């Protein structure tokens, strides 16, 4: 007897969030590059990381009601790393 494998799609928050987040970043970078009027941007990678990381940390920390252990777990980083990043952005 052969077992049938049933595949089904589940709309999880990740499956709907990821394309929206990705598209938001793509749209913002596209607009930034357009606004540069052909000038070569300098340090775009670091700029984007800094612009995204600070609000990400703030929102996850707010969501966790200030619980750094919970926020770090949600972010998938070590609590010490989170504390260092919070200090870097003045979000302590």
For this entry, give a set of tags.
disordered N terminus; 92 residues; single chain; 4 helices; 2 domains; mainly alpha; Arc Repressor Mutant, subunit A
Number of domains: 2
At CATH level 3, the topology of the largest domain is Arc Repressor Mutant, subunit A
Secondary structure class reads mainly alpha
CATH superfamily of the largest domain: Homeodomain-like
CATH class of the largest domain: Mainly Alpha
Radius of gyration: 19 Å
Number of strands: 0
Q: Which architecture of the largest domain per CATH?
A: Orthogonal Bundle
Report the principal-axis shape: elongated
Average pLDDT, rounded to a whole number, is 86
H/E element sequence: HHHH
Separate helix tally = 4
Low-confidence stretches: 1-10
Q: Kindly estimate the percentage of residues that lie in beta strands according to DSSP.
A: under 5%
Sheet with most strands? none
Question: Percent helix among the residues?
Answer: 55-70%
Kindly report how far apart the N and C termini lie. 61 Å
Any chance you could write out the topology, listing elements then pairs?
Elements: H1 13-35, H2 44-63, H3 68-75, H4 79-88
Helix pairs in contact: 2-3, 3-4
Structure description:
- The chain is an all-alpha fold and 92 residues long.
- It contains 4 helices and no strands.
- The longest helix has 23 residues, at 13-35.
